[in-house]
């Protein structure tokens, strides 16, 4: 039985991850970690997540859980994730990271950590979004560089702190790579004012933050006379959490290296 620790256990994804673990076979919750000053310490993790008693008490640090897990599932915040990766690196644990909003510099820490640990790092763990990444590559290559304007539109709940979403940025990267463009050079974020006519090579990003939207992403390819839209809509967080649990099972079989959901789903 694979034992999993969930950090950010009281968060939206933390609770969904506990629920997904409870539904899965061959893998189970070993530890649930919240912030050190949380009033939830000592509470049963299953009761906290709304799935009934699991016999795992919530703790305030990974140190307290070191003997209780093989794989960490972390959906928290960038600095917290990096601290947790350092811990797993030192203690020989595998890692699944869903946190978004990491800077390029923070991502280089993951590259380094993957020399000694097996890590899955993906901005979106759902099967559907990862299939969309593949479809986007095919679409971008087929439509080419000359005719089609490309825009990435995403919508999320009012609590989301990073924008554009990690998924939207990855969609932009996939399309830019397929077209031989550098996203850093061609990305435009949220136009305003007298911006002028649209330059051909731009990839535009538009962000909506509203209510309880779980996560919608559309990539629009538009030219004179037609447009193509590739859209994914998540309707609950279990879709991400089931992907994270699948990744946890998979990464347990790896020694070192940095992987994403495309590796796990055979979409590379
Ligand atoms: N890859 C994917 O498929 C998906 C990725 N995400 C990403 O996952 C991340 C989390 O999202 P979400 O669950 O909605 O966010 P939440 O804010 O609901 O959860 C984040 C959790 O991290 C905890 N946390 C923050 N700081 C610390 C700390 N110093 N020590 C310990 N715990 C800490 C928070 O604790 P507290 O509650 O006490 O503040 C909270 O429980 C985001 O980056 C989001 O973009 C989200 C969905 C899918
Ligand atoms: O914060 C969220 O909620 C989500 N974040 C991820 C992202 O930034 O792409 C994935 C998903 O869309 C939900």
From TrEMBL:
Residues 128-265 form the Dihydrodipicolinate reductase C-terminal domain. Signal peptide: none annotated. InterPro entries: DapB_C, DapB_N, DapB_N_CS, DHDPR_bac, NAD(P)-bd_dom_sf. It is found in: Cytoplasm. Pfam families: DapB_C, DapB_N. Its EC number is 1.17.1.8. Pathway: Amino-acid biosynthesis; L-lysine biosynthesis via DAP pathway; (S)-tetrahydrodipicolinate from L-aspartate: step 4/4. One of its GO terms (molecular function) is NADP binding. (S)-2,3,4,5-tetrahydrodipicolinate binds at residues 157, 166-167. It catalyses: (S)-2,3,4,5-tetrahydrodipicolinate + NADP(+) + H2O = (2S,4S)-4-hydroxy-2,3,4,5-tetrahydrodipicolinate + NADPH + H(+); (S)-2,3,4,5-tetrahydrodipicolinate + NAD(+) + H2O = (2S,4S)-4-hydroxy-2,3,4,5-tetrahydrodipicolinate + NADH + H(+). GO terms for biological process: diaminopimelate biosynthetic process; lysine biosynthetic process via diaminopimelate. Residues 2-125 form the Dihydrodipicolinate reductase N-terminal domain. NAD(+) binds at residues 8-13, 35, 98-100, 122-125. Keywords: Amino-acid biosynthesis, Cytoplasm, Diaminopimelate biosynthesis, Lysine biosynthesis, NAD, NADP, Oxidoreductase. It is an enzyme of class 1 (oxidoreductase). The active site is at 156 (proton donor/acceptor), 160 (proton donor). GO terms for cellular component: cytosol. The keyword Cytoplasm applies. Homotetramer. Catalyzes the conversion of 4-hydroxy-tetrahydrodipicolinate (HTPA) to tetrahydrodipicolinate. Belongs to the DapB family. NCBIfam families: dapB. This is 4-hydroxy-tetrahydrodipicolinate reductase. It comes from Neptuniibacter caesariensis.
């Amino acid at each position: 039985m694979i034992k999993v620790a969930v950090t950010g256990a009281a968060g939206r994804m933390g609770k969904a991850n506990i629920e997904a673990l409870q539904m899965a076979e061959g893998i189970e919750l070993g530890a649930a970690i919240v912030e050190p000053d949380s009033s939830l310490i000592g509470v049963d993790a299953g009761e906290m997540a709304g799935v009934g008693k699991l016999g795992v008490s919530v703790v305030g640090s990974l140190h307290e859980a070191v003997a209780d897990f093989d794989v960490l599932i972390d959906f928290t915040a960038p600095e917290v994730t990096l601290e947790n990766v350092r811990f797993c690196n030192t203690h020989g644990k595998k890692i699944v990271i869903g946190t978004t909003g990491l800077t390029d510099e923070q991502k280089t820490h993951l590259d380094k950590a993957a020399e000694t640990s097996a890590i899955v790092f993906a901005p979106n763990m759902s099967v559907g979004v990862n299939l969309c990444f593949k479809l986007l590559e095919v679409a971008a290559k087929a439509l080419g560089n000359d005719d089609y304007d490309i825009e990435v539109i995403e919508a999320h709940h009012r609590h989301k702190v990073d924008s554009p979403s990690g998924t939207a940025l990855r969609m932009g990267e996939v399309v830019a790579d397929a077209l031989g463009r550098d996203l850093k050079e061609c990305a435009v974020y949220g136009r305003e004012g007298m911006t002028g006519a649209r330059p051909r090579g731009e990839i535009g990003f538009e962000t909506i933050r509203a209510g309880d939207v779980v996560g919608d992403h559309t990539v629009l390819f538009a030219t004179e006379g037609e447009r193509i839209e590739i859209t994914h809509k998540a309707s609950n967080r279990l879709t991400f959490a089931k992907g994270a649990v699948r990744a946890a099972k998979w990464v347990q079989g790896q020694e070192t290296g940095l992987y994403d959901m495309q590796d796990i789903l055979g979409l590379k």
